[in-house]
Amino acid sequence: MKNDPASGVFGQLDPDRMQEIVSTFGPILQAQGTITSVPDAASMYTNDFIDPSIKMAGP
Questions:
Q1: What's the number of domains the chain is made of?
Q2: How does pLDDT run across 1-59, given as a tens digit for each residue?
């Protein structure tokens, strides 16, 4: 776990990074038959329970 570079919040997932991961690996998994369709990245995570006031101090 670390601060999300986009928001600075500890543990928050970056939507752009999640989309990149799904766009990269989704078609591979689909071609292998592991999944039947590539899911929507936003349906795979939530930042709803992250407290934005919690941040790690920099080096």
A1: 1
A2: 556 666 677 778 888 889 999 999 999 999 999 999 999 999 999 989 988 888 776 65
Which residue type is seen at 35? I
| 18 falls within a domain | yes
Reduce the DSSP state of residue 10 to 3 states and report it.
strand
Return the pLDDT at 40.
95
- Residue 25 lies inside a defined structural domain of this protein: yes
Q: Full-prediction pTM beyond 0.85?
A: no
Q: Is 3 helix (H, G, I), strand (E, B) or coil?
A: strand
Domain ranges, residue 28: 12-36
Q: How far, in Å, CA of 43 to CA of 51, rounded? A: 20
56 in Cβ contact with 3 (< 8 Å): yes
CB 22 within 8 A of CB 37: no
